[in-house]
Structure formats: C-alpha cells, structure tokens
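Sample entry as discussed:
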Amino acid sequence: MTPNRRPRSAPNDRELRLWKVGRALTLAFAAAVLVAGGVFYFLVVLLDVQEIGATAKLDAKTLFDLVKLSFGVVAGAGALVALVVAYRRQRVDEAGAHREATRLHTERFSQAVDKLGSDSPAVRLGGVHALAGLADDAPDNSLRQTCIDVLCAYLQLPFTPDPGTDPAHQEEHHRYLAFRKVRHTILRLIGDHYRRPKGTHRSWQGCDLDLTGVTIDGDMDFRGATFCGGTVSFSGATFSGSIVSFDDARFSGGTVSFSGATFSGGIVSFDDARFSGGTVSFRHATFSGGDVSFDEAVFSGDVSFGGAMFSGGTVSFGDATFSDGTVSFRSATFSGGTVSFRHAMLSGGEVYFRSATFSGGTVYIDDAMFSGGEVSFRSATFSSGTVYFRNATFSGGTVSFRGATFSGGTVSFRSATFSSGDLSFDGAIGSAPQGLLAAVGTPPPSGVTLPSAWLPSAP
C-alpha cells in the first residue's frame, strides 16, 4: 500500500500587500491623534485641571510656548510620514532581497540539474552535492522540497544493471560502478540530513521523501534519525544490497540500521517489504507517534526490534508473514499507542518477545495464525494495557510463555483455536489470561502445558 503524501503547502511568494500611501498616512495620523488625545486626557486628569481662567492673558511666554508646540506637531507629523515611508521601503527591500535570493537559487538549481544529466560520473557527483547544498540554503521550504524531490527522482530513473566482471565488459562494469557511486552518495546524504535535529541548518526532517519504485543497491544508514513529519515512502522499491528496505523492498545482504531512530510523527511505510537477507536493526528505536506500517511485509531474514520503545502512535504488522529467519522484540517495551499483528501469518522462523514488557497501550494479535516455527514470550511481563489473541489459530510450531508474568492489564485468548503444535505456560506467574482455559479445553490437549494453579480442581 502506498501512503498518501500530505498536501504540500503553497509556495511563499512574499507578495507585497501594502496599503496606498494616502490610506496609510490617514490611518497613521488618526492613530497619532488618538494617542495624543489619550495622553492629553491623562495629563489633564493627573494634574487635576478642571478649567482655564477666562481672564488669562496671552503673554509673550505663552505665545512662545504655542509656537514651540506648533513646530513640535509639524515635526511629529513629518516623523510620522518618514516612518511610514521607511516602513514601505523596508518591505520593498525585503521583497526584493527575497526575489534576488530566489533568482540566484533558480540559477544554481538549473546548473545543478544540468550536471545531473552529464555523461561524466564526476560531474553528476558534483551536481548531487550542489543540489544538497541548495536544499540546505533554500529561501523557503517549498524550494527545499523541490531539491529533495529532484534527488529522489534521480534515484527513480532506470539504469543499466551491472554487466559483471567479465574482461569483455570491463569498461561497462567500471562505468556502472561510477554511476552507482552517485546513487550511493544520494542515499548517504539523505541519511545524514535525517539525523540532524529538526529546525537546524541542513536538517531535512519533516520533508517528504518519495523513493517510489527505486532500486537501491547500497547502504542507507538511519541510525539516530528522527521521523517527525512528512511522508517517507519507498513503495515498490527494490533493495538488492546492504540497504534499508520499505515497500516491496528486498533485503538480501549486509546490515541495515535504524538503531536509536525515533518515529514521532508523519507516515513511514514498510508495506509489502521483503526482509529476506542480511540484518535489519531497529534496536532501541522509539515509536512515539505518527504511523509506521509493515502491512503485508514478509520477514524471512534477521530483523531486530530489541529494546525498542512503543509508547505512542500506531505501528502495524497487519497481514505480515513471518516465514523464516529471526524477528526479535527481546526486551522491547510496549507502554502506549497501538501495535497490531492482526491477520499475521507466523509459519516459520523465530519470533521473540523474550523479556518484553507490556505495560500500556494496546497490542492486537487478533486472527493471527501460528502454524510453524517458534514464537516466544518467555519471561515477558504483562502488567498493564491490553494484549489480544482473540480468534488466533494455533495449528503448529511452538509458542512459549514460559516464566511470563501476568500481573495486571488484560490478556485475552477469547475464541482462540488450539489444534496442534506446542503451547507452554510453564512457570507462568499470576492469573490465567482471559478465555485461555475455554479456548484450550479441559483437560488441555497434548502439547498444551499450563500451570497446575490454573487448572480446575479435580472433583
């Protein structure tokens, strides 16, 4: 599923919306009169002047004071006019500076794009760095997003695959490696910019990242990155090396790391991803907001969420398939938000929730099918929140809750089905989960091991 990109805000063209001089001066004078009247009234009240003697004479001193007052009013009016004119000049200068900055940005942008079309890999590499620098120095977010879009579009362009190391194709092989370096540089720059704090210079956090349909055959390092806004989409991408994979991607070797990354907003999609080789790490990642989706992903390699924190937002593994390899949630903490494994297929490999803590939020494992491999909740702690196994089917493989602690919250096996395989609650502490005894039946079938305290007393 391809996530919908958020609507892009209209560009800031900084159009001048200034009043005409006559109108501005009229309003300015009116404001000045009101302020002067207010001050005069305040002084009259303050000095407690109630009336002016009718016999007061207009002597030379009073006349001189009136003249000074008149000149003061004229000078104040002139200063007010100068202030209005200066304001308009400042606004015009600011708009002109922005237009000039935009013009220079456009010229540099055109030159950088021309370099990307060069036949020389070195020139293309220069164009990549030029566009990244333009994105960093862009006068507004719209121009920054345009630079990022061009870099992403470059990765979306088709390219000739590696012809191999055969001597007859040595020149083509070297050319392939040279242009491959250009693509890898773009991937490295993207990762570097996503690690910079949002709002700081050179940070691209919050921008859209559209790599739909790309072929990525190099490393993409998001260690410590923060996804706090925008839409990150790798829909239909193919990952054929040590890379990070999202929609329709393939992890076929190497190590991909999201270790320590923070998912706190926006949309990040791993839908239809193929985790089929190498190692992919989300160790100690924090999922505190936004929408992270692994729907219909296939896990057949090694993926680790060890020590990850699920405290907010939505993380979905709906209809995902766990068919081989190892997926580990060892020591992960589920304390808030929603994590869903609805309709997931666990048919092989190993899925570990060992020592995981379920202390809040909601975890849905509804309608999941456990038909092979090993799923382990050994030493997990269920102390709060809600974990649902409703309508889950246990028809093969091994599911273990050995040493798990059920001390609070809700764990429900209502309407679950146990037909074969091994299900063990040996050493479990606390009360039996809701609906478990009804689901397994009494006495429990072979392969299902429950603590004696959970079994009904013999008559």
Q: What stands out?
A: The longest strand covers residues 226-233. The chain has two domains: 21-47+63-116, 207-454.
